[in-house]
Specification:
about 280 residues; alpha+beta; nine-stranded antiparallel sheet; 9 strands; about 25% strand; binds flavin mononucleotide
Length: about 280
């Protein structure tokens, strides 16, 4: 059963649920009513109270104030079907080049969402290092949580959040390890410090303190004091081969433009407009 702060009051249709703000255990049953929190509202209630209070918890200290002056509207020229390139990789390249030209911070930073076999999701940023018609490549530790989840369930999603351009690109697809020779080529192009970092961090494992990292780094520096640092067998690239690629362009009044390219069985891309 859903926790109390997520449940419908039974007085009407559930229209808003915010499960992030949990009630303190000290509150009375009456206070646990969804109405006292403003966490969920029913349709009749909405008719009476259509103001900000609907989404703001009543209790001081339970909500974070979001400054009203935060810039939200990054609308620019609309995106229409005619201006889209037929191939999504060409379209990605056009937008990625623009993101680089407009000096966006880390335009190659992308969120990578993975899920374990039982469906538990996790998301984190990784850096896109290569892309071509075969897919989008990032590098990581093959023992990390993300790699373990990919081993259980190769279906992943990527998101490029190009806020200041009012754009996002979302990708769904299948992640696979790239060949060791390709990982080696990339590893050798990295700085010695980054190479030692890869050897040092047993990524996603629990460690007692930073000293663990510093001690291991010192040991690795000694171990690889001369010559080329070899590629760790627990480190390398994943390529995400896309099945869908969606381009989202901010437009006024939340009527954004969205186009998704979908790979069909004949290996060609169709394009659909989606409601924002
Ligand atoms: C901007 C940015 C870029 C990152 N790039 C990478 C990356 O390319 N590879 C990587 O393994 N971790 C990268 N990280 C760290 C990951 O977000 C994450 O903390 C780490 O990979 C462990 O994730 P996991 O425990 O879910 O496997 C980056 C973090 C940030 C904020």
């Amino acid at each position: 059963m859903a926790p109390a702060y997520c449940r419908n009051s039974g007085k009407g249709q559930l229209i808003h649920v915010n499960c992030l703000a949990k009630p303190s255990p000290a509150l009375s049953t009456d206070e646990l009513s969804p109405f006292s929190y403003g966490l969920q509202r029913t349709a009749p209630d909405l008719h009476n109270r259509v103001d900000n209070d609907l989404i703001r918890p009543k209790f001081p200290g339970m909500s974070m104030k979001i400054p009203e002056e935060i810039k939200q509207d990054f609308s620019r020229e609309p995106l229409d079907a005619k201006s889209l390139l037929p191939d999504p990789f060409d379209q990605f390249e056009a937008w990625f080049s623009q993101a680089c030209a407009e000096n966006l911070p880390a335009p190659n930073a992308m969120s990578l969402a993975t899920a374990s076999a039982d469906g538990s999701p996790t998301v984190r940023m990784v850096l896109l290092k290569v892309y071509d018609r075969d897919g989008f490549v990032f590098f990581t530790n093959y023992g990390s949580r993300k790699a373990q989840q990919i081993a259980e369930n190769p279906r992943v999603s990527l998101l490029f959040p190009w806020f200041s351009m009012g754009r996002q690109v979302t990708i769904t697809g299948i992640a696979q390890r790239i060949p060791t020779a390709a990982s080696l080529r990339y590893f050798l192009s990295r700085s010695r410090g980054s190479q030692l970092g890869a050897w040092t961090s047993d990524q996603s494992s629990v460690i007692s303190s930073r000293t663990v990292l510093e001690t291991t780094l010192a040991r690795m520096k000694q171990k690889f004091s001369t010559g080329e640092i070899p590629l760790p067998d627990f480190w390398g690239g994943f390529r995400v081969t896309p099945e869908t690629i969606e381009f989202w362009q901010s437009q006024p009044d939340r009527l954004h433009d969205r186009f998704v390219y979908v790979l069909d069985d004949a290996n060609s891309w169709s394009i659909e407009r989606l409601a924002p």
